[in-house]
Amino acid sequence: MSIDQQADRSFCLTESADFLAQNWDRLQHDYGGKWVACAGRSVRLFSDDLVHLQERIEATCPAETLLVEYVPLPNEPLDWK
User: Fold this and answer.
1) What ranges in the chain are assigned the alpha helix state H?
2) Are 20 and 14 spatial neighbours (Cβ–Cβ below 8 Å)?
3) Beta-bridge mates of residue 43
4) How many CA atoms lie within 13 Å of 44's alpha carbon, on the beta-carbon side?
C-alpha cells in the first residue's frame, strides 16, 4: 500500500468516525442494536450480526474502506469483557 493510499484510508476512517459521533442519536434511533459499516458520511451496510455484516461487506464492497461499529439501543448497557 502506498503512502497516498494510507492517507486516503485514514481520511475516510476519520470522516466516518466524525459522522458517527455527530449523528449518534439519529443512528441509535435508526440502527439501534445493529452493526453498521460506514463509508465517509453514510451507512453503507448494516446487520444484526457481525459475521453476517462481514459476509455482506466481502460480497458487495470488499475494496472499500469501511468503519464497522456496533450501535447500541438507547440506554442499552454494554459489557465489553
Assistant:
1) 3-22, 24-31, 50-60
2) no
3) 38
4) 20
Whole-structure pTM value: 0.80
Q: Residue 7: how many CB atoms within 10 A of its CB?
A: 10
- pLDDT tens-digit map of 25-50: 999 999 999 999 999 999 999 999 99
Q: How far is CA 29 from CA 32, 42, 75, 77, in A?
A: 6, 15, 12, 16
CA–CA dist 40, 51 (Å, integer):
22
| Contact in structure between 57 and 65 (CB atoms under 8 Å) | no
